[in-house]
Amino acid sequence: LLGACMATIRVGVSVGKLQVLPRNLTGLTVLDVGGFGGSYALFCLERGAAACVVIDNGQYDLYDPDPEYEQVRQRRHHLQEIGEKAGIVYHQCDLMHWSKPFDVVLCFDVLYHLPRWEEGLDRLRLLTRRTLCLSTFFVPGASGWKIYGEDEERPLQGLSPPTHRTVFAKPTVPALFASLGRVGFTEYQAVAIVDDNLALRVS
User: Fold this and answer.
1) Phi, psi of 83, deg, nearest 5
2) Which of 31, 40, 64, 71 could bond to 102 as cystine, CB 3.0-4.6 Å?
3) Tens of pLDDT along 12-21?
4) Per-position b or e across 160-169, b if 16+ CB within 10 A of its CB
5) Three-class DSSP category at 154
6) What is the pLDDT of residues 129-159, one digit of tens each?
């Protein structure tokens, strides 16, 4: 399937996130939340997925034009062309507006962009029939959830929802597991840690 496109698809792909993907997805449906151009969905097809859908809110198309984001947009569109030829279905849609559940849900580096992360976790639980493959930044050695602005760290509680794209939430690992448990997930397997990014498999 990947063939001559392999080099293009692998650019920017995290080995840790690939390790989180189940090795055998034969016959299963996969939803890639915030999937950008669909790189990981393509790997899911390679592992036997029956169908893959990518949803992304298209935030890179909303940013002010500059050389950095123009390259990002071009890469996304190129990957989407490859994915569509492979049978991946794309929707420009926010996580909170998607309602159809899938066997396996991918949510890589999306959680910390959500101003209401608890609602995001709850939605992910509703969408996941079997397995959630999740990655997010975390805060080693601290407690509770944090919001990071451009220059400072502040407690999440009591703040208005952040609006700037560089503001995001970071949990400690115990806080993340506790939050996953509160929304109904019962098993957590940390698969890879790269710097302050944690990739895990949840069910």
Assistant:
1) -65, -40
2) 31
3) 678 888 899 9
4) eebeeeebbb
5) strand
6) 999 999 998 887 777 777 665 444 544 443 3
